Amino acid sequence: MASSTSLTLLSFPFLLLTLSHAATFDVVNQCSYTVWAAWAAPGNVGSGQQLDQGQTWTVTVNPGTAAARIWPRTGCSFDANGNGQCQSGDCGKLACTSYGSPPNTLAEFALNQYNNLDFIDISLVQGFNVPMDFRSTSASCSEDIQCTADVVGQCPSELKVAGGCDDPCTIFKAAQYCCPSGSSCEPTPYSQFFKRLCPRAFSYPDDNATSQFTCPGGTNYRVTFCP
C-alpha cells in the first residue's frame, strides 16, 4: 500500500504543486449598500458577484496568476443575461473577464512569482470608489493593507465624478499622470492627495517602495469593502 501511494505521488508532482499553491480570496461586503464584486486577470479570466451587506464571495485563483485584481463596482444594473453597466468599476457585464473602468479601488495581486512569492497591493492609480482592506489570512503571512479614509468626501473638485474620485490620468490624459510604458514618473499634487489619505496604497504607477508587499506562495487572503 505504501509503495502504491508513493508511485502515485511521484507520477503527478505538478498536480500536487498546483493544488498546494492555489489561493483563495474571501471577498466581503461590509458596506451599508450593495456592491458588485469582480475579479479579472489577463486572458479573459475572471468573474463577478452581487454582494449585499454582510455577504461573502470566495474566489479560488490558480497558481502563477499575475496582473490580477479584485475590485468593487457600484450602481450596477444587469439584464437576465448578465449584461449591463455600473456607475463605477464597470466592465459591461456581471461576470467580468476584463478590467473595470475608473474610478475603482483595486486589490492587485500576482501569485507564485519571484522566489515563489505573492506580490499584493491596494492601488488608487485608477482612482477610488469604495474603502478597502486587503489582508492575508494564512499563518505564514501577516500583511494587512488598508485604504479606509473618506477619499470621496475630500476628493479635489476636478477629480470628482459619479461614483467616486477619479484618477488624474483618466481626467487629464497627460503623460505626467499616465506614466506611459517605458517611462518613469514622479509624484504629483494629485498622487500626494491619495498618498496622504492612504499611505500604504499605490498613488501613482511608480509608487513601489511603500506600496507593494509580499507573502509566501500559497497564502490565502480576504478583501473587505467598507472595513
Automatic annotation (TrEMBL):
Q: Where is the signal peptide?
A: 1-22
Keywords, in A-Z order: Disulfide bond, Signal
Q: What pairs make up the disulfide bonds?
A: C31-C226, C76-C86, C91-C96, C147-C198, C155-C165, C169-C178, C179-C185
A Pfam match: Thaumatin
Show the InterPro entries listed in the entry. Answer: Osmotin/thaumatin-like_sf, Thaumatin
Its domain of life reads Eukaryota
What PROSITE patterns would the database entry show? THAUMATIN_2 (PS51367)
Give the family per the record.
Answer: Belongs to the thaumatin family.
Q: What is the name attached to this protein's record?
A: Thaumatin-like protein 1
Organism field: Cocos nucifera (Coconut palm)
